[in-house]
Structures are given as structure tokens and as C-alpha cells.
Amino acid sequence: MTLPYLLRLLCLCFACFFLLHLAIGAAVSLLVPAVLHRAERMRPRHATRVLLGVRLLPPVISAFVVLGLCAPSYLLLEPAATNEEVGWACLSAALLCAASFVLSIYRGWSAGRRSIGYVRYCQLVGRQERLPGENTPVWVIEGSAPFLVLAGILKPRLIISRPVVNALPSGQLAAALRHEEAHRVSRDNFKRLLLVLTPDLFPAWRGFVRLEKEWNRFTEWAADDDAVAGDSQRSISLASALVRVARMGACPQTAPLVTSLLADNQDLAERVERLLREAPEAEVAERQPLPALIGGLASIAVLAVLTLQPATLSAVHRLLEGLTR
Amino acid sequence: MEALGPLEVSVMEILWSHGDSNVHDVTQRLGRPLAYTTVMTTLDRLYKKGLLGRRKADRAFFYSPRWSRAEWEQKRAGEFVEGFLAAPETSGELLVSYLVDAVGRYDETLLDELERKIRSKRRELRRKA
């Protein structure tokens, strides 16, 4: 099929992204069991970072190569006036990539819509209150369903049902709220949205389900650690709160992009036993944003200088020519 | 039919390959060290989901899969497609799905056991203090 200059560029970018993403994704998925094995020995917060990084690696590298190499080499070396044939293989790869993008955008939009709808519904039927001994206001919902969740992506809100407020003694309620607050501070709902938006390796085939489930498990453990912060009393209070809310028959998951106190009902015994073994320490935040930012920008600049060499660009262009046919 | 979590899948794999097993057998055959109570809950949950049958012998439950792996996969795929095709997303259903997407029911025995452990830990802390 003959395509004009810019449409051919788009087609090539999509095709390259699809092939790279599939290849890197397949390679990463082979490493997943080893990564999960290592993650079991890490502190939960560190494990969440590693697993999220591994999950986002294929699309990030693919996007970097496409935008940093393929597009510049095409724009610089392809004569603008030509109308060239694009082979069916290239076209099919581009269409599969476009389908993956459409699906992931739809998934993200749908999850975001449900999440926003859930927050609006709770704000409609609930009331903002400052619970005794708590600084952060929470939304309290009247009714019989027991739940304690963090809902919302950019401005997450703590939402709790009246039966949970009434059932938990102050120490347990404080521990449970600290757990959800830890999710808010680490922006777990936003990270969940990132995962939902990550394109599939193949349209409608995600390929990293186990990794994402394990990430969820470690996120809960990390929030437990932050809530407890090495204090044995808090640890017992949080364990008691988990069991008490579970006994009330809490809904473990209410909507996508909503974090619940009992996020995964399969993990309850493991979480409680972990809290009772020893009060887990919260990981000390070692945030040095400026040096990290400067380091990141410097690495990108060095990579850009290395990759945008004429020899590299012409080699990539030859590969693109091969892919087009 | 509900989706299975990673631990549930591992347990099903063990039962499919070894047949009739009790909690102790499954705990030993699992690749990673897990608490007895965790495996017990998982088996109980699978039983309640209708995936396992169980019989009592020598004061312990022996669990066995109710379907072969192929039968289970066929049933699951069928139910998924059926449910997917028959679900126009109306606002009412959407609202209900917010609240009762997945209602967790916990095994009372497990919760009792966990509460007992919490009480014991609390006593231990008091003694130390």
C-alpha cells in the first residue's frame, strides 16, 4: 500500500513500537520469576518500586527508541517528496500497535470514569468529618456496608463507612487510617492507573498479570509497614483492625483505582501473621530529587548524543527501509 | 466462576498433579514457605468456590479437585464469554458494581485463629512491658 510521507512515519513508529515492545516484553517476562523471587527478600516498599519499574520497562524503552532513534532517522534521512510502498507486515504490526493503544486508553478511561463516579457518589451520600484524634478529614458514609478505602487519583480521599467507624476502637481506627494514608502518600492509585494504561504486549493480552498481582500484594505490605513504623502496639492494632473489618464482611474491592483496607482477601492471614511476627519498620525515604533529576537528564543527554550520530541514524534508517518492505 | 489468585492456582496445580491431599501435604509441596493457616484458608476458599471436594479422615480434611484442569478451563472460558456478552453496562449495574464488585467472605475458623494469635501477642507484649 502506498502511503504519504507523514502517514508512513506514523505507520513505521507504530510498527517499531509493537515489535520492540513485544520483544522486550517477552524477554522481561522470562525474567519475571527471578525478579519475583528476589522481591520476596526485599523490603516491601523497595519491592514495589522494582516490580513497577520492571512492568513499565518494555513500553518505556520502546517509546524511547521509537522517539529517540526511529523518528529522527526517518525525518532526517528519508526524502520528503517520495510516496513509498508499505508492506503488509509493517502495516499489520502498526495496526496491532494501534489496537493495543486504543484498548489501553479505553481501559484507563473506563477505570478513571468509574473511580471518579465512585468518589462523586460517596461525596453525594456521605459527609466530611474529622474523626477524634485524626488530623485529616475523611468522608463518612452512612449505611450497612463495611468499607475503608482510598479513592481518587490526583486528589485521593479517605472514605469510610459508619459501621467501621463504630466498630473499631480508636487505636485500631487510627492504624487503619494510617495504612490508607500511606497509600495516599505513595500515590498508589496513580500507579494503578499507570499499570492500567500500559499497552498490552498483544491486543487484549496483557502478559504480566502475575507481576501486577504481586505488586498489589507488596503495596499492601508496604502500606502496613508505613502505618506501623516499627511500633509493636500499632502493629497489633492494625492486625486487629484487619481481622475485625474482615469479620464484618468487608468488600475487598469496590472499584478499579480504589485502594481498600482489605485489598486482597487472599492475603489476610499472611498480612496479619506478618504484622504479629515483628512490627515491620517503615522504609526511610531517601529522596534527593535534584541530584536524581540532574543525573537522569545527564544520562538522557549522553544517550541522545551517542544515538544521534550519523552512522547510528543511517543504520536505523536502513533497518526501517527493511521493515517497510 | 471467580478468577483464581496466584496462591490458589499453585494449590490447584498441586491437587491436579497429586490428587487427594490434606493441608499438611499441600503446605509441604508448595515451593515457598507459607503458614499452615494460609494454606488452610486457601483450600477452604477453593472448596467454597466449588472447585474442590473434601472428605474428613483422621480428624483432617482431604481435598480433591472436582474438575480436571481441562474441564475447569472450559467452564471458566464459557462463563466468562457468557457473562461478557450478557452485560450491557447500565448506570444501575455500574453503581451496584461499585459496592459489591467482590464481596469477601472469610472463614470464621481462620478469623478465630488470627484473633487468638493477636490476643497471645498482646499478652506477650504486656508481660515484656
Task: Characterise the protein shown here.
The complex is a heterodimer of chains A (325) and B (129). In chain A, strand 5 (148-151) and strand 6 form a beta hairpin. In chain A, strands 3-4-6-5-7 form a 5-stranded mixed sheet, with helices on both faces. The longest helix of chain A is centred in the N-terminal third of the chain and has 38 residues, at 88-125. Helix content of chain A is 67%, strand content 7%. The N and C termini of chain A lie close together (10 Å). Chain A has 11 helices and 7 strands. Chain A has helices at residues 5-39, 44-77, 88-125, 162-167, 170-185, 188-197, 209-228, 232-247, 268-277, 289-307, 310-324, and strands spanning 2-3, 84-85, 126-129, 138-141, 148-151, 157-161, 258-260. Helix content of chain B is 63%, strand content 9%. Chain B has a two-stranded antiparallel ribbon. In chain B, strand 1 and strand 2 form a beta hairpin. Chain A binds chain B through residues 40, 114, 117-118, 121, 145, 210, 213-214, 232-233, 236, 239-240, 243, 246-247, 249-255, 262, 264-266, 268-270, 272-273, 276, and chain B through 5-8, 32, 34-35, 37-38, 41-42, 45, 94-95, 97-106, 108, 110-111, 114-115, 117-118, 121-122, 125.
Please sum up the structure shown.
The complex is a heterodimer of chains A (325) and B (129). Chain A contains 11 helices and 7 strands.
Which helices and strands, and how do they pair?
The complex is a heterodimer of chains A (about 325) and B (about 130).
Chain A lengths: L1 E2 L1 H35 L4 H34 L6 E2 L2 H38 E4 L8 E4 L6 E4 L5 E5 H6 L2 H16 L2 H10 L11 H20 L3 H16 L10 E3 L7 H10 L11 H19 L2 H15 L1
Chain B lengths: L5 H13 L4 H7 L6 H13 L3 E6 L2 E6 L3 H17 L5 H10 L7 H21 L1
Helix pairs in contact in B: 2-3
Give the overall silhouette of chain B: elongated
* Distance from first to last alpha carbon of chain B: 49 Å
The residue ranges of chain A in which pLDDT falls below 50 over 5 or more consecutive positions are: none
Helix content of chain A: 55-70%
Number of helices of chain B: 6
- The main sheet of chain A orders its strands as 3-4-6-5-7
Tell me the Rg of chain A in angstroms.
24 Å
Please trace the helix and strand order of chain A, writing H or E for each element.
EHHEHEEEEHHHHHEHHH
Secondary-structure-derived class of chain A? alpha+beta
Characterize the largest beta sheet of chain B: strand count, sense, and whether it forms a barrel.
2 strands, antiparallel
Biggest interface, residues from each chain? A-B, 34 and 34 residues
Mean pLDDT of chain B: 76
Classify the beta-strand content of chain A into a percent band.
5-15%
Q: Helix-strand pattern of chain B, N to C?
A: HHHEEHHH
By secondary-structure content and strand pairing, the structural class of chain B works out as mainly alpha
- Whole-Å distance between the termini of chain A? 10 Å
What global shape of chain A is seen?
elongated
DSSP summary: helix tally of chain A: 11
Integer average pLDDT of chain A: 85
